[in-house]
Design goal:
D-Maltodextrin-Binding Protein, domain 2, globular, 11 strands, alpha/beta, 44% helix, six-stranded mixed sheet
């Protein structure tokens, strides 16, 4: 190969690479970072999404687990990355909204240090008590709590977890008092409830449902905006008269701040295409995720509302992770 031909080939290759970059097609594999160890609910959902992305993006996708500090280490890794389309964060309400609003010095602000790409879906919770409990309804729970102030207790996955905050929101809106008992994760929290060591909890629907069907737990209500498909006879708290008591968890995809609009559009379109695949929807639904594709702007606006709501709950309840 003579030098002129070699130069032509190099120039054509460089031009193609430039055009691919200009069209919003990043070079290198995509890191989809998860702030929790492998095997958990967030990691499992991320891998369902990641499996489908390479064919749509023409870009290899690697799920990278960076656990620690309640998911914030993984989030910070992406917040500090270049907005070049090679790093995204698969996050939840716990580490992106609740963790920052419950700290005096927040590790980041989700709307300032990330670019929202799109929501994956919402995660529903259900208010449950042991099947042997004398509490048979939300009304009887409230009456019992008011009749025995500070005698009742409720469990959560840990201080500042999503179901801890939903529990505090419930106490605030109903005007009752109960003692919060944090556990290190969902499994020990559920074991304590089944053993009657705590009186009630807001458990994720996916975890609670098998115990409800087995007759070990009693479902009183759901804080979701609408009744759950798998619990059609369980009312929402709004139906019971608590119009300002609706709360869910969620999962979503984020990029570093200041990502170019064409890249945001590219990733949002790919995410929505994945979420509309029947097998993906089925797998996520089985994990308790109600798939909700939408635009990046819709996701941004939802995050702003969530941030304001949970900051108010944290202030009213005095919750602090510091």
């Amino acid at each position: 190969m003579n030098s002129l031909l070699r130069l032509v080939i190099l120039c054509v290759g460089a031009l193609c690479a430039f055009q691919a970059g200009a069209a919003g097609n990043p070079a290198g594999p995509l890191r989809l970072v998860v702030g929790f160890p492998p095997g958990g609910g967030t990691d499992g959902a991320a891998r369902i999404i990641a499996e489908k992305l390479p064919a749509l993006l023409n870009q290899p996708t690697i799920v990278e687990n960076r656990g620690g500090a309640g998911g914030t280490l993984g989030a910070l890794n992406v917040a500090r990355a270049a907005p070049d389309g090679n790093a995204l964060f698969f996050g939840t309400s716990a580490e992106l909204i609740i963790n920052p609003v419950t700290r005096k010095t927040a590790p980041y602000d989700v709307l300032e240090q990330f670019t929202p790409i799109g929501e994956v879906g919402s995660v529903s919770f259900v208010l449950v008590v042991p099947a042997s409990s004398p509490i048979t309804s939300v009304q009887s729970l409230i009456a019992r709590a008011k009749g025995q102030p500070d005698r009742l207790n409720f469990s959560s996955f840990g201080i500042g977890s999503t179901n801890h905050m939903i529990g505090e929101l419930f106490l605030s809106r109903t005007g009752i008092r109960a003692t919060h008992i944090p556990y290190q994760g969902s499994a020990p929290a559920m074991s304590a409830l089944l053993a009657n060591e705590v009186d009630f909890t807001f458990e994720s629907a996916a975890v609670a449902l098998p115990h409800i069907k087995a007759g070990k737990l009693r479902a009183l209500a759901t804080p979701s905006p609408a009744r759950l498909r798998d619990l059609p006879d369980t009312p929402t708290l709004q139906e019971l008269g608590f119009q300002n008591l609706a709360a869910e968890g969620w999962m979503g995809v984020f990029a570093p701040a200041n990502m170019a609009p064409d890249l945001v559009k590219r990733f949002n379109a790919a995410l929505n295409a994945v979420l509309q695949m029947p097998d993906v929807r089925e797998k996520l639904t089985a994990r308790g995720v109600d798939v909700s594709p939408g635009s990046a702007r819709q996701f941004h606006d939802m995050l702003a509302t969530e941030q304001q709501k949970w900051r108010r709950v944290a202030q009213e309840s005095g919750i602090s992770l510091d």
